[in-house]
Amino acid sequence: MATAASASPGALGAKTPARGPSARHAAPKPTPAFARPSPRRAPAPGRPRASLHLGGAGAGAGVASSSSSAAAANGSGLHVPPAIAPLALPKMAGAMGTHKNVVLFYCEEMRELAQQVVARNDDIELRSISWRTFADGFPNLFISNAHSIRGRHVAFLASFSSPSVIFEQLSIIYALPKLFISSFTLILPFFPTGTSERMEDEGDIATAFTLARILSNIPISRGGPSSLVIFDIHALQERFYFGDSVLPCFESGIPLLKSRLQELPDSHNITIAFPDDGAWKRFYKQLQHFPMVVCNKVREGEQRIVRIKEGDPRGRHVVIVDDLVQSGGTLIECQKVLAAHGAAKVSAYATHGIFPNNSWEKFQHDNGEGPEHGLSHFWLTDSCPLTVKAVKDRQPFEILSLAGPIASALQI
């Protein structure tokens, strides 16, 4: 008669014992390194049974009783394991219901905007830098209590308003990620070399690409590559100038404009105008629920004249939208053309007001006398702090602050 071992073909390493008298004197088998499963009785004839084992060795014992009960309940004979609780996932910074505490440094030009950012979010802490110079004019910089930002999320609010202030800020930008911080974010609202991205003749220098390469080499922090926040970069292809060592985040000031337009008493009568096809390509998707007018420049002899390409401004409050303004000549020509075609009012918006050589002085307020006399509103953001100081309390200018969008971007 066969022993129990011989009746259990599923036993690991089991051999059929010798038959006959010598079997009772056989040497005992050594204990295996791993426990073997208990022998099971063969299923009753005509009643197949299936078993499902999850969780590896030893798991079957823990679920035997519950699975047997489940099998009995559904009558299928299938052993169903008990429900397994999902793994607890760690909370990520910026996720719903969580907050990221950020230490915000800033250059002196951005002091006022930095203070407004902190006022928008209690999770942002403002820290200053000592901006000193040596006798030869080179920067002598100092970050006080540098050890206290170890393990913290750190950001720097920069303004590259002129080449003379870029080097000292780059020195800070390259130093902060090396102070054992958890992550680093550079906020550069205006990418200043954006208009210098073309190489049309041999010898042209694309300074936009040069600056992008410099920013792409910001050292990584303990949390990985640095993040870079820019608003309405001038040429869309410039986002591809940045290397893989930095994470550029491209934001827009257009939501600020849309919110402001909703507050106007004639918000139902707004038409958006673009000074050229480039502005239309950039912004029309964000403003497509407004009627639109598209202008373009045509050459007549030695002059380039602005004309309406499509759309009707008659009787409407027309808002000219562009990413930046420098001399303002094109905007003024658009204003004149729209007024000549029957616009009731003309206003303008530009995310970045550059205005070299005080060119903002060209823009006059209409004083309610019609678009032939000037603009009803000229909205700018505070991405260029020197312009903000120059046009403060001067009509038709009004500043829309980037403080809210920057505070939100720091929580990403």
Automatic annotation (TrEMBL):
Record region (Disordered): 1-58
Stretch forming the signal peptide: none
Cellular component, GO annotation: cytoplasm; ribose phosphate diphosphokinase complex
An example Gene Ontology molecular-function term: magnesium ion binding
Gene Ontology biological process: 5-phosphoribose 1-diphosphate biosynthetic process; purine nucleotide biosynthetic process
InterPro entries reported in the protein's UniProt record: Pribosyltran_N, PRTase-like, PRTase_dom, Rib-P_diPkinase
Protein family according to the UniProt entry: Belongs to the ribose-phosphate pyrophosphokinase family.
The keyword Transferase belongs to this UniProt entry's keyword annotation: yes
Name recorded for this polypeptide: ribose-phosphate diphosphokinase
